[in-house]
Structures are given as C-alpha cells and as structure tokens.
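INTERNAL TRANSFER SHEET
From: sequence group
To: structure group
Subject: Arp2/3 complex 34 kDa subunit

Please process the attached sequence and return the structure record in the designated field. Keep the field labels unchanged so the import script can parse them.
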Amino acid sequence: MPEILEKCIELDHHWVEFDDVRYHVQVSMKNPHILLLSLSLPTPPLETVFVGGLPFGAIEAIKAAYGVIVQILDPPRDGFNLTLKLNLSKLPQDEGEQVHFLQRHTLLVKIASVREVVLGAPLRVILKHLASRTVAPDIDQFVALVHRPNESFFLVPQAEKVTVVFPMRFKDSIDTVLATSFLQEFMESRRTAGLSNAPPCLWSKTPPLELKGVTDDELSANAGFVTFVILPRHVEGRKLDRTVWNLSTFHAYVNYHVKVDTNDQFQTHICTVLRRVYAQPDAAACGVTYSGSELCQTRPGEDQENTTNKIFQTSESQGQSNQFKFINVLAVDMPLSFVPPRIEVGGLPS
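Return from structure group:
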C-alpha cells in the first residue's frame, strides 16, 4: 500500500485466501488514495446467523478496527458480501518517528487481517465478554460460526469459560487419515510439552457432550472433533487478538500441516527407494551414483516377479544434457504409513 501512494499504481486484482474468502482490490490512477477492497465470504450453513450477508457484529468490528480510514459501501460490489472504501491518505504519516511508524504498521496489518476482523467478529464479541466473566446478551446456548463453505464450528459460551468445538472435515480420504494422525499427535504434544497454562485441548471421534443438542447433520465429521476450553486468562489484554486469529484459522492450520506431511511422505518414500537403488552392487556398473539429487522422473516398465523396471532421470554435471538410465530395482512394498508431521505446540496464548 505505501507503494500505491508513492507511485500511483493502478490495481485490479482478484485472489483467494484459505480456499474460502475471495478478494477483489481496485485502485484507480484518477484517485490513487482510494482503495476498494471487496470480500466474498464462505457460503454459511443454515445453523449460522448472518445479518445483511455478514456475521453478527461484523459492522461494529470493522468500524472499531479501521476507524476513519474505512467507509462501508452499501450495497457492496456485485458478487461480494462486503466492499470497503479505504482512504489511504488518512493512514498515519511515516515521518521518521517510531510512534508514527508503529501506528501505520499496526493499521496495515489490520487491513491485511480483514478476514479475521469480519469472520471473527462473533467470536470476538463472545470472548470479550468472557474476559469480564459475563455472557453476551441475546446469545444462544450453542453458537455456530462459519469458517469454511457450508461448514461451521461451535461455541458454548459461559461466564467462566467458552468451549470451542471444531468438527474436522476433509474431502480426500488420505487427507482424512493424515489429519486424524496429526490431531492425535497434536493433543499428545500439548500434554507432554509442559503447556499447563495453555487452553485445554481434546480430540475425540464422537461429538463432545457440550453439543448434545446439535443435530447430526451439523456435526458430521470424518476426522473427529477438536475441543478447546478458553478461560478468561487466555483473552486478557492483547491475548484476545491472538486467540481470535488462532481459532478463526485453526482448520487452515491443520490443513496446511496435512499438505506439508503429504509432500514430506512422498519425498521420504522417494529418498528411501533411491538409497536402496544406490546400495545395489550393480548400480555403479549402470552409471548410477548417489549425488544427493532428487528423483526427477519414474516410469513403470514391464511387470516382472518381485521387480519393477524404473527409469531414473539423472543430470550430468557442467550443463550436459539429461540421460536416462534403465536399471532394475527391487520392488519395495511401501504402503502409506503415516508418521506425525512437525508440530507447533505453542498455539493459543497461555
């Protein structure tokens, strides 16, 4: 955004965040200080509460976060739930003073976090009341909040705690198995890492008792249920923002680790096969030596008993052309065995 102000860059760009929120940003050369930011939110399931196409509390959250630099356009641009008109000339001026720089940076980060400001608005309302050990008025016993297209997670607000339950759903069967393994290890890591002050966290195959009144359709999940218990100390002061962000993006966090683990599993499998190939007595005779390079290409050859013909593409040094070497590799039966991925056990504030 600073570049827009300094160079008068014209923008008309679309992008998607976390596969669910679609953005459209526009800046015109005629008025480079005005930026139009439109958001298309995930399709809400029936159990969630939207007011005017937005989660309840979203308008108030936008005004509180951005103040005078933002105007909410009514109606929004076609195909979007919300269009914000940002007056970039009203950003705190960067005049070299540290305080102005920090104010400007903080506001730009809030603009970049507009997804959390809008979708996390109901969550913020409930957790702010938890900080004062009260329950927000006109709040139901169960609160469903949209976080993915046609999917929601649930809150059970009480004066002394807020129970947050995520039904974990994945379309791909392999992702489901990976996610289940990851979540089980996630729970175990939190128990053994000395995080006694962190929010209690549980994983179960079946819905927790707190959601006894929720219908079966709303609680469909093929990777189990994750439950966090948020206490007043977890939302005190600046901890509130971090807790809202981490809860709002929890499914994306799990999905990221699932995808990373899938790639790691493939690379680990390939490296294992290569090490076994290079260990064969006839590998050197075929001109194949271990150089630490990755496998570029494999092709199955004719079926043979207990063997598989593969082609390994190797690159000669000094820019010479690729050469293909045919070698027989002992067939390695490597069914997917899922090991826990890297775990970030810090998570929510203590």
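Handover comment: Residues 71 and 85 are 5 Å apart (CA to CA). The radius of gyration is 26 Å.
Transfer complete.
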